[in-house]
Amino acid sequence: MKKSLIVFYISLAILLSLVLMGVFIPESLEQTTNSTQSFITNTFGWYYLGIVSFFVFVLLYLLISPVGKIKLGKHDDKPEFSKPTWLAMLFSAGIGIGLVFYGTFEPISHYAISSPTGELGTDQGIKDAMRYTYLHYGIHAWAIYGCIALTLAYFTFRKGELSLISKTLRPIIGKHADGTVGKIIDVIAVISTVMGVATSLGFGAMQVNGGLSYLFEVPSNILSQTIIIVVVTILFLISALTGLGKGIKILSNLNMGLSALLFLSVFVFGSTLFVLNLFMDTLGSYLHNFINMSFRTAPVDEESRSWINSWTIFYWSWWIAWSPFVGVFIARVSKGRTIREFIIYVLLTPSLISFLWFTTFGGTAISTERAGFSISTLLPEESLFGMLETFPFSLVFSILAILLIITFFITSADSGTFVLGMMTTNGSQNPSNKMKVTWGILLSITAIALLYSGGLLALQNTMIIAALPFSIILGIMVFSLIKSLRQERKDLMLNQLGYTPNKEKK
C-alpha cells in the first residue's frame, strides 16, 4: 500500500462499512445515530456555543491586529483568481444550495411553525425569526469556515506544509503530525467530507425532484431522484476534469449571475418596501442581540432550550462537520491574499450577502403569508416555488430557481471531489483526474444506495456526531495558528532591529 494513499484506503473502508449498515440495517443505524445525536446536542450545547463564539472572536481579533498584513503565501505570490471570482467560489462552496431552499423556508418556519421565542405569527415573531436566521447563516457559520481555511492557507502557502489538516497541528503535536495521530486526523476529515457531500447529493436530488414535481408534476420518487443524481454526476465530472481554473470557476461565476438575477426578481416583484425596512430593522436587532444569541442556552426554559438544540446547536455542529470540505477548498483558492483581506471576504462579505438574501426571500415569504397565502404549510422544498407562484411570470422565475439549484448542486459536488482528491493524495494541490472521478462515482453510488434504503438521515446524523471530535481538532488548529502567528510577528520585529534568532543560536 502506497503511503500517500493510506488515508484513501482507510477512509474508503470506513465509508463502505457505514454505507452497508445504511443499506442493510437502516432503521437500526438511524435509531442509534438519532439517540447519539440527541445526547450530544443536549449534553454539549454549551460547548458548541462557546467554541463557535471563540472562533468568531479569533477572526475579529486577527482582522484588526498587526498580523492582518501577513500574506497567505510568499512575499511575491499573487492571487490566482480575481476578487469577484474568488468570492463566487467560496460562496458557492460555503452555502450554495442551502440559500435557495432555506432562504424562504427557514424564516417562514421560525415565524409560523416553531418560534425561537414563542412569538408565533406576531409582529415581534417576524423580528425574532429573521435575527435567528441571520445568526444561523451569518458570522458564526463563516467564522467556522474561516478559521479552518485560514489555518490551512497559512501553513500551506506561508510555511510550505502539505495541504492536510494534520500538518497544521505541527506547532502543537510536533512529529506526531506525520505519524499515526496525523493519519487519524486526516481520516476523520475525509469521512466528514464524504458524508457531507454524499448527503448533499441525496438531499439535493430530493429537493430538485420536489421543485420539478411542484411545477410540472414530475413523479417524486426514488427513480426520479436517481436519474437526477446520474445526470448531475455526469455534469460535475465533466466540470471536474476541466480543472479548478475552468470548471469550478465558470460554474461559480454562473451561480453568482443566476443568484443575482433571481434575487433582483424577488426584490422587485415582491414586497420591496417591506423587505428594505425589515433588513434595516433586523440588522440592528441582530447586532444589538449578538452576544445574547451567541451564548443563549435557556437553562430554565425547556421549550426554548429544545428549540436551541434543534436549530442553533444543530447548525453549529453541521457547519463544523462541513468545515473540512469548505475549509480546504477556500484555502486552496486563497493563495496570495493577506490575512485581513481574507477575513473581510470570507467572514464579513458572505455574511452580509446572506443577510440580504434571507431578508429578501424570507421577508417576502412572510409578507405573502400575512397577505393570506399559505406558504408555511408547504414542504421545505416547495416553499420557494409556492411563494414564486404569487408573482407575475411565476413559471419563468421558478425555472430560473431550478437552474440555480442545479448549478449550485453541480458546483458543490465538483468542489467536493476536488477536495477529497487533495485530502487523499497527500495534500496535492492538483489531484489527478483518476482520483477525482473515483470519488465522484463513489459519492454518487453512496447517495443512490442510501436513497433506496432510506439511510440518508442516518448518514446525516453520523456526520453531525463526527462534528464533536472534529470541533476539538479545529480548536487545536486555531491555537496552532495563533502560536505560529505570534512567533512570526516576533521574528519580524527582531529582524527589523537587525537581530536574527537563527544566526544568534549558531
Automatic annotation (TrEMBL):
GO terms for cellular component: plasma membrane. The chain crosses the membrane at residues 7-25, 45-64, 85-105, 139-157, 184-206, 226-244, 256-280, 313-331, 343-366, 393-416, 437-457, 463-482. The keyword Cell membrane applies. The keyword Transport applies. It holds the Pfam family BCCT. Signal peptide: none annotated. One of its GO terms (molecular function) is transmembrane transporter activity. Keywords: Cell membrane, Membrane, Transmembrane, Transmembrane helix, Transport. InterPro entries: BCCT_CS, BCCT_transptr. It is found in: Cell membrane. PROSITE patterns: BCCT (PS01303). It is a multi-pass membrane protein. It comes from the Bacteria. Belongs to the BCCT transporter (TC 2.A.15) family. This is Glycine betaine transporter OpuD. It comes from Ornithinibacillus halotolerans.
